[in-house]
Amino acid sequence: MAQYSRVSGTVGLITLLNPPVNALSAAVRQGIVDMMDKALSDRKVKSVVICGHNGKFCGGADIREFSSPLTGPLLIPVIQGVESAAKPVVAAIEGVALGGGLELALGCHYRIAHSKARLGLPEVHLGLLPGAGGSQRLPRLIGVPAALDIITTGRHVTAAEALKLGLVDRVTDRNTVDEAVKFALSVADQSPQSRRISTFPCPHHPDLDAVFEGVMQRVRQRARGALAPVACVQAVAAATLPFAQGMERERELMATLFTSGQARAQQYHFFAQRAVGRWSMPSGARWDKTKPVAVHKAMVIGLGTMGRGISVALVQAGVSVVAMETNEKQLMDAKQAISSMLERGAKRRGVAPALDKIRYSSDMQPAADVDLVIEAVFEDMALKKKVFQQLSALCKPGTFLCSNTSGLDVDQLASETRTPELVVGMHFFAPAHVMKLLEVVYGSRSSPQAVATAMELGKQMGKVSVAVGNCRGFVGNRMLKPYLEQAFFLLEEGATPEFVDQVLEEFGFAMGVFRMSDLSGLDVGWRVRKADGLPDGHSARIRQGCRYSPLGDLLCEQGRFGQKTGRGWYQYDKPGGQVAKPDPWLQDFLEKFRTQHGLVARRIDHQEVLERCLYALMNEGFRILEDGIAAGPEDIDVIYVLGYSWPPHRGGPMFYAAMVGLKKVLERLEHYHQEHPDIPSLKPCNLLRKLVVSGSPPVQKWREFLQKPQSQL
Ligand SMILES: CCCCCCC/C=C/C(=O)SCCNC(=O)CCNC(=O)[C@H](O)C(C)(C)COP(=O)(O)OP(=O)(O)OC[C@H]1O[C@@H](n2cnc3c(N)ncnc32)[C@H](O)[C@@H]1OP(=O)(O)O
């Protein structure tokens, strides 16, 4: 709803009221209509100010309303009503003006922003476009190139940048509403006629066609099949038409997006990201009942790629860091790399680099004086155990001990310490100062406070933290295993790496499985498999009674570790080269391999690649839910979108399973398992069967079908 009062004698003040972000629900839209009527019919009122309750102008349309039939007045005529008002209307922007919130502000005749306010049109991240006139008014106000940038990236603009662009008329450090009221008094006698953006012509640009072409090309490349970014460009292109025609085009494009299914997936992802913050543990411990401990000083042990990124992310979050590496040369290299990462980051954010927040050490002694340690040494259990033993002896009581392991047993590490309750996994993703995902892994003895502290620290570092249980590979890497396995089996059966990758990239992954393996290094998995014991003779296609593909091992034996060695599943022009080219050697190698094992290559189509890779991965997701390793499908989906480049417009693997239809997923898994009974990951999981028997409920209801895992505390 909206509140109304008359202030300073002649200013009508309308306050949007819908905590926490004053989203434009039906009641708020109705409130704006009613309060504008009141202000316009009050003879004493000469001008109007619109502001938001509690220091936030408006977070946009109420996204929760998108999933049910729209009620109340539509936003477009509400904004038109504001713009066509005969009295000047001033937007007082504090906190945020996003999406429909900014579109409402663009309907006002003047905009005054607080210096800390952020403005933006992030609809593209929800699978939409600024469909309440934003795609038409913004380019008219600030020009096509700047509008295209803001609308296609969905980025937030600071008040200072907004002023520079001409998006706001004034920026203030003082009370924004007071300033807006003063401003409203000063323009009370002026006609708003010339301030109606819908009447502006689209600013001239010498080569608009080239601008649109260039942006469209970039957007298509980045979109990975998402419709919204492309529709955003098309909508802005319509701003060169008369306003009414542009609005009609905006409406048509918006209608297509609304019904595409992609918008639903991206809106699900928006709420899933927020839902994972409300974590719980099998013991019943929960986010709202556990207080995290503030971390002022942390230590990072091991300064390889991960340790460097973690150190940078900690410093940028305001935490003092001791970065430790035993090898002096590596320590010096790391120091240089971290300093330049901090400098680059600070330059981007327009602040001074916090180089004084980090110091370097070649021994562990400083661990005695920190609140939390993150171990990021080589992925080797024996080495990690040794580090945890040393930490246990050195650290002051209460120090949290975290491991950046990507899949090793957190309980084993905890058992090396005197304080297993303070041990958790903090699994970052490379590059750790960039990637938004953090898996916080609780072991059987991790205390709720240790989990809460790691979750909160992740948030402070700008991450979306997801609490997960302890098992091999946790959630993300555990699900990756059957996915990779299927890709290898498909090669054995007749596919090529190029074809498999092409299918997965068309689906929307940033990289297909083989290009991704080449990038991350084939030797990493090889080392883990060797530690597990490879099958005798290395050519055996059976391991523990199940089908096993030795292809990856055989490539590593040839020294083909991927991009870094210039050879892997593809060939590169040099070690470290980035352009992957099909390698005739690999073709030959695959043919020999098939002959040696009596395999006859068959034609494998697009559908089989997609179904076998993705359904095997989804099936493991259902197992993870069944085992209580993830609390709900949202946790898995957030991990896959933010950590494994699953396309956001497909919601995540569990959401996608629901979109495809659980019955179909079950049938196809049954079919493939019948054809390949020696591949257990294709055997449909019980939870999937249970959901199908229960009528395939929507993904938001799956939690009701999950058994509460027994407390292990
Ligand atoms: C044919 C029909 C035509 C219709 C035309 C419509 C055109 C306009 C479309 C839109 O405006 S779409 C919405 C655009 N806005 C956004 O995308 C902003 C989304 N919100 C955010 O980015 C952030 O929430 C924030 C505003 C920057 C605040 O961040 P903060 O970290 O402070 O809090 P959060 O935890 O993110 O959010 C708190 C709470 O509020 C809920 N929420 C936030 N925004 C909305 C919203 N627009 N609608 C409904 N709910 C919103 C959020 O979910 C959190 O609640 P819980 O999920 O924790 O319960």
TrEMBL record:
Organism per entry: Oryzias melastigma (Marine medaka)
Subunit and partners: Monomer.
Top-level taxon of the source organism: Eukaryota
Q: Know the name of this protein? A: Peroxisomal bifunctional enzyme
The entry's localization annotation reads: Peroxisome
What GO terms fall under cellular component here? peroxisome
| 3-hydroxyacyl-CoA dehydrogenase NAD binding domain segment(s) | 298-470
Annotated GO molecular function terms are: (3S)-3-hydroxyacyl-CoA dehydrogenase (NAD+) activity; delta(3)-delta(2)-enoyl-CoA isomerase activity; enoyl-CoA hydratase activity; NAD+ binding
The EC number on file is 1.1.1.35, 4.2.1.17, 5.3.3.8
Where this protein primarily resides, as one coarse class? other
A Gene Ontology biological process in which this protein takes part is: fatty acid beta-oxidation
> Any idea where the 3-hydroxyacyl-CoA dehydrogenase C-terminal domain is?
473-572, 609-705
